[in-house]
């Protein structure tokens, strides 16, 4: 059985990616930071459909915790006698993160560093920490943002987009460096998607949905499964000849 790690899978895109990968026959190690109930809900959804999953805590901004997390993953692999039977993983989805809009004039170093640790430094060094557990031929999928592409620039997202852009550039270079082991590295860039980012911004400010949908060629905002399906595709057999790509999954936002 193939095994995947999905960070930030207690809701939204990460939850969808975990469920979609499980539906394609992966055992799933999923992580959560504060939302343990959401992570357990993801596990329950996977198990209800006949899959297998385990939830582990992880703060992706805390690089000092990565060796212990790697050990916890290795222990989970050993403890799952059936049907996993593995000591390596085949997929890593770097999804955990957060969104924060701060006008450039109001940006502080503390806020900037928080974005840096959570959105760029964390995924970068987590991938490094997990390299010993990645099987040859594995797939890494980084979740970035359409704000890092040539879509309409939104005021307040200069630091957020810069960190996501940095992860996109790193994706290309890691694809080159890890290619001797057959490891593929790609990124997906969601557009406006109905998730819990921004402290449940869509729930708190539903009036923003219609204008965003009007600026999207396909006429609506994204749903988590729109992105989760793309992640599963890149991680699976359908994506076996795709690497170093930054795929926008945004329904034509800003066209």
From TrEMBL:
Keyword rRNA-binding found: no
InterPro entries: NAD(P)-bd_dom_sf (IPR036291), SDR_fam (IPR002347)
Keywords attached to this entry: Oxidoreductase
GO molecular function: oxidoreductase activity
Cross-referenced Pfam families: adh_short_C2 (PF13561)
UniProt keyword Oxidoreductase present: yes
Name used for this protein in its record: NAD(P)-dependent dehydrogenase (Short-subunit alcohol dehydrogenase family)
Source species: Jiangella mangrovi
């Amino acid at each position: 059985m193939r095994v995947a790690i999905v960070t930030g899978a207690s809701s939204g895109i990460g939850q969808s990616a975990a469920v979609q990968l499980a539906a394609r026959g992966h055992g799933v190690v999923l992580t959560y930071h504060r939302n343990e109930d959401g992570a357990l809900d993801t596990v329950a959804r996977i198990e209800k459909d006949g899959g297998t999953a385990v939830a582990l805590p992880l703060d992706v901004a805390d690089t000092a915790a990565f060796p212990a997390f790697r050990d916890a993953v290795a222990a989970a692999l050993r403890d799952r006698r059936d049907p996993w039977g593995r000591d390596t993983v085949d997929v890593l989805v770097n999804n955990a993160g957060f969104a924060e809009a701060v006008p450039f004039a109001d940006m502080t170093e503390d806020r900037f560093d928080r974005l840096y640790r959570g959105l760029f430094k964390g995924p970068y060094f987590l991938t490094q920490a997990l390299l010993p557990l990645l099987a040859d031929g594995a797939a890494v999928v980084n979740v970035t943002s359409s704000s890092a592409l040539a879509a309409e620039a939104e005021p307040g997202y200069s630091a957020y987009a810069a960190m996501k852009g940095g992860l996109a550039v790193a994706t290309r270079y890691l694809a080159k460096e890890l290619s001797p082991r057959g490891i593929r590295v790609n990124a997906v860039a969601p557009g406006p998607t109905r998730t819990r980012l921004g402290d449940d911004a869509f729930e708190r400010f539903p009036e923003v949905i219609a204008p965003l949908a009007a600026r999207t060629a396909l006429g609506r905002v994204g749903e988590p499964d729109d992105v989760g399906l793309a992640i599963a595709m890149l991680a699976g057999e359908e994506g076996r000849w795709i690497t170093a790509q930054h795929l926008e999954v945004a329904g034509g936002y800003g066209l």
